[in-house]
Amino acid sequence: MNLSADQFIGRFLLHVLPYGFHRIRYYGFLGNRHRKEKLELCRQLLGMALPCESSSIPVTPEDYRDRYERLTGRSLRECPVCHPGHMVPVTVLAKVRPSPAIQDTS
Fold first, then answer.
1. Residue 62: HSE in the Cβ half-sphere, 13 Å Cα cutoff
2. What is the pLDDT averaged over residues 50-55?
3. Contacts of 42 (CB under 8 A, 6+ apart)
C-alpha cells in the first residue's frame, strides 16, 4: 500500500499516547494474574538460572554519589576546592514538573 507522507504520519500518530498517559499491559506473560508462573516458565524454557531469593536484611540501593565514586574514583562528597573537606547538603530543592504541552480546558 502506498501512502502519502501526511496519511502515513496521521496513521502512525493514532498509536501515540497523549502526554502524561502510560500504556498498561493486562495480557501476555507480563499480565499481573499469572506473571510469576509465566516468567518461571520463560526462564525454564530459556535455560536461565532462577533468581536468587533476597535475604531478610533489606539492601539499601546504591546512591548516585557512590556509583560515581566507584566508576570514576572521585568522590562527589569531597569539596572540589579544598579536597579534604566534605560537602554537606543544606537544602533539598523541590522538583520542578514541566507544564503539559496541551492545556486541559475542561
1. 8
2. 68
3. 29
